[in-house]
Amino acid sequence: MNVLAKLKKEWFLVGMLIAIVLATVTSEFGRSDGVIHLDQLTGVGIAIVFFLHGLGLSPQAIKAGVTNWRLHVYIQMATFVVYPILWVIFGETFLAYMPSALAFGFCYLLVLPSTISSSVAMTSVGKGNVPGAIFNASLSSILGVFITPLLIQLFMGFEGVQLDLLDSVVSISELLLVPMIAGQIMRPYLVTWVERHKALVNKVDKYVILLIVYNAFCDSVVNGIWSEFSVGLLATSILICTVILLVMVHLIQWGARFTKFALPDEVAAVFCGTKKTLAAGIPMAKVIFGADPALGMVLLPIMLYHPIQIFYCALLANRYARQSESLKTVTHSSAPN
């Protein structure tokens, strides 16, 4: 019963594994331009997901976090400068020892924006600066529409990857930004409905991601991409994702303490600065890489990184919560009677 309860709690991660397994035996059914035209269906789903994200963003909470400019600069620099520098340092090594599609997948992982929902949720659990987290996670998603394709062109263009930068930015804006803005406009009229159906709304993006993962891996299987992939390479990829996360968590913690951030700001910086979005990353990949048969392998690093970051950051959030409670206890006990 404990195992069943655990599987039910982690249904999304289990669902991703099932989607990958299904793709190996039903690839013709789920491929792009296949029987059910899943690529078109997921395009509609993506628009719905980001419309719902727009509905869920509170303007008041975002405004409350605007003034803390040191925190904003710190988080966005971690996301769009420090992570990409890792590719500058190690990119040639990845390309030398991995299939090029997988190496480019790590490049793509490193230039993605932060998440919104899990960054804010982890910050809240860790007793951090929630308004600051909301503002920065939202800002990261918006900046990522422009910065991610620019960095992909900068890094991968040298390796013969052709990308129409303007067309990619416009396409990603239409796919992600326009529905989000529409959601913000409609928020006053629909926010009550969203709150009433919050349990369902919070799962919609996960359902859409599962469909996209299934579609991407069906395309990969049909085109024989996985014939060059081994169990050892998968284990190596998991190890690299884990090392990247641990390095960035401790680097951001060290920097936050060196610059004397308050603990709530450090919590927000760690959880917004180390997250990479699966929800926006997979749709953006479909725009940037199109119907590339290697898309499944390109997406593998972010699919591996996502559960690793959720698991580790959940542990870290609980640790931060205990630290915050300890500080409150010390403060109250030392306060004059």
Automatic annotation (TrEMBL):
Keywords: Membrane, Transmembrane, Transmembrane helix. GO terms for cellular component: plasma membrane. The chain crosses the membrane at residues 12-29, 41-59, 71-90, 96-121, 133-156, 207-226, 232-252. PANTHER family: SODIUM_BILE ACID COTRANSPORTER 7, SOLUTE CARRIER FAMILY 10 MEMBER 7. This is Solute carrier family 10 (Sodium/bile acid cotransporter), member 7.
